[in-house]
TrEMBL record:
Lineage, highest ranks first: Bacteria, Bacillati, Bacillota, Bacilli, Bacillales
SUPFAM superfamilies tied to this protein: Helical backbone' metal receptor
GO CC list: outer membrane-bounded periplasmic space
PROSITE patterns per the UniProt record, alphabetical: FE_B12_PBP (PS50983), PROKAR_LIPOPROTEIN (PS51257)
Domain Fe/B12 periplasmic-binding stretches: 79-333
Protein name in UniProt: ABC transporter substrate-binding protein
Domain of life the protein comes from: Bacteria
Organism: Paenibacillus agri
Assigned keywords, A-Z: Signal, Transport
Entry similarity comment: Belongs to the bacterial solute-binding protein 8 family.
Compartments where located: Cell envelope
InterPro entries recorded: ABC_transptr_periplasmic_BD, Bact_iron-sidero_bind
Residue ranges of the region described as Disordered: 31-63
GO BP term (any one): iron coordination entity transport
Signal sequence, start to end: 1-23
Length: 338
């Protein structure tokens, strides 16, 4: 229940009510757009005062096809609100004026979101209206109808894009910046090639690399190349091999301790979802005879990675994670020589 009763809030709610009554066509959406997660750019414009979409001349709009139908969107949107696509939009130079709360915990986006507003999740319609966006992009469509009354809204379901290339091109198209998408991907390819070069002579051709996660309930999971945790970095950018048993058939697969040895890898990277920072489940895993008996444990090839840093899978995060993975592998190799 909202308890704010300031004159500003009352005025905003009246404006929202008026928009809902009068939004019968024009620039309001009737659909959301196909898309997927990805990308980020080293610099993004700060939020600035720009007119909302309804003030944009009709000639500056274009039709965009989405799972909900055709939506008229600005050809060059200037103020965008999103739920979970902050990094994807920033990677192609978009001006993100509002985003959901967890984006601010993404270490790769901290500087880029300094002038961006937390719009809550689900996206708060009142906060969104105050920001006067000319485009809204959502991963989840629970309050799509309300948002589409404020500005053109496109729905890009989770999983629309399956890799960084599809993602960056998708969002470059959405914001009318295909040139920035191409530039971002060129930089990504350059960084990936440099990373592969650094690993030559360190990683053997047949070495396997596995990504795992332990939850605060003691559940253990293994991941493929498109479920965050560094999958796109290890398997696509650095072109390292998955455990033979996994073979990417399952992007996420829960493992029992009995099955773990079958899905083990020569190099194993573990993140731990432990929001209360208890540490008890991680201690139990480390003390397990099964865990201690893995070849990766015996060869000092177990890596314990920070959840917030490696969970992220937007294009900016993926690009930054290349150096993180390469550096930790190189450093461990030097350590093991001693």
């Amino acid at each position: 229940m909202l308890k704010r009763k300031s004159l500003l809030s009352t005025a905003v709610l009246m404006m929202l009510f008026t928009i809902i009554l009068t939004a019968c066509g024009g620039t309001s959406n009737t659909a959301s757009s196909p898309a997927s997660a990805a990308t980020a750019e080293a610099s993004a414009p700060a939020a600035s005062e720009q007119p909302a979409a309804t003030d944009t001349p009709a000639a500056e709009f274009r039709d965009y096809e989405t799972p909900k139908g055709t939506v008229k969107i600005p050809a060059k949107p200037k103020r965008i609100v999103t739920d979970f696509y902050g990094g994807e939009l920033l990677s192609v130079g978009a001006n993100v004026v509002g985003v959901e709360p967890s984006a601010f915990e993404n270490p790769f986006l901290t500087d880029l979101l300094k002038n961006t507003t937390d719009v809550g999740y689900p996206i708060n319609a009142e906060k969104t209206l105050e920001l006067a966006p000319d485009l809204i992009v959502v991963m989840y469509d629970g309050n799509y109808d309300a948002l589409s009354k404020i500005a053109p809204t496109i729905y890009v379901p989770y999983g629309t894009a399956t890799n960084i290339y599809e993602t960056v091109k998708l969002f470059g198209d959405i914001v009318g910046a295909p040139d920035k998408a191409e530039a971002f991907l060129a930089d990504f390819d350059k960084k990936a090639a440099a990373g592969r070069e650094k690993l030559k002579g360190i990683v053997k051709e047949d070495d396997t690399f596995g990504i795992y996660e332990l939850t605060d309930k003691g559940e253990l999971w293994i991941f493929g190349d498109n479920a965050g945790r560094g999958g796109q970095v290890l398997y696509n950018a650095l072109k390292l091999k998955m455990p033979e048993k996994n073979k990417n058939d399952n992007q996420t697969l829960q493992l029992s301790m009995e099955l773990l040895p079958e899905y083990a890898a020569d190099y194993m990277f573990l993140t731990t979802y432990d929001p209360e920072k208890k540490g008890d489940k991680l201690k139990e895993l480390k003390d397990s005879p099964v865990w201690k008996g893995l070849p990766a444990a015996k060869n000092n090839h177990l890596f314990y990675n920070d959840f917030d840093t490696y969970y992220r899978y937007d294009p900016i995060a993926i690009t930054a994670q290349i150096d993180l993975f390469v550096d930790m592998i190189v450093a461990r190799n030097e350590e093991n020589k001693k």
